[in-house]
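#lab-general

N.A. 3:47 PM
ok so I finally got the sequence cleaned up, no stray characters, all 211 residues accounted for. can someone with queue access submit it? mine expired

B.Y. 3:52 PM
send it over

N.A. 3:53 PM
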Amino acid sequence: MDCARSLLRMGREVKVVYRRNRREMLATKPAIEETLEEGIPIEFQIEPVRLVLQNDQLVGVVCLRTELGELDASRRHQAIPISATEFVIPTDAVVTAKGKYLDVDDLGDVLDLNGGIQIGFQYHTSAPGVYACGDCISSGVVGQDAVGDAVRMEREVASEVHAGLEEVSYIHLDPIPVADYLKKAGGLAVLRSSKRTVLDVCLLKTDLLAR
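B.Y. 4:20 PM
back already:
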């Protein structure tokens, strides 16, 4: 639902399709209602089966209508495709819903996993150049808290990546008063304040490190 609403705000024409009925959607009731209120159609009991390409470009998605069968392991009715109901939804982009749980099937060989992705200092994973934050990390939070924490983590990671691109040194400090750090750095540092009242992240040009 979040992706659909974000795409709408980006000026795209959006449609959501779901293989079961509305009652069995895992999205929250407010999320569904707000999506519909924004004018995004949700078509139920439709299952995408394959993509349609022309000249290596996506032009549509082949779908089948479904009927509900017996309960499955999730205690929801199975979505059973109905033969001879195939139709095409024209589109040039597809966003797939992967579920609420972390899919680590392809990550075990490159990342340390233990109920989530293990991170070290500044959200580094065991894979060079790969960061993790939000509710996918082993100590991650869930729900609304995850949104705020993920935004804060994302900004700190972005600061480090930006420092690398700009070829400046990135310094993550234990909390100290901003005034003390500015005095130490000669007032020439690029600063980003944390949600606390003290400095915890800054960018510092390499030639200032010796000062």
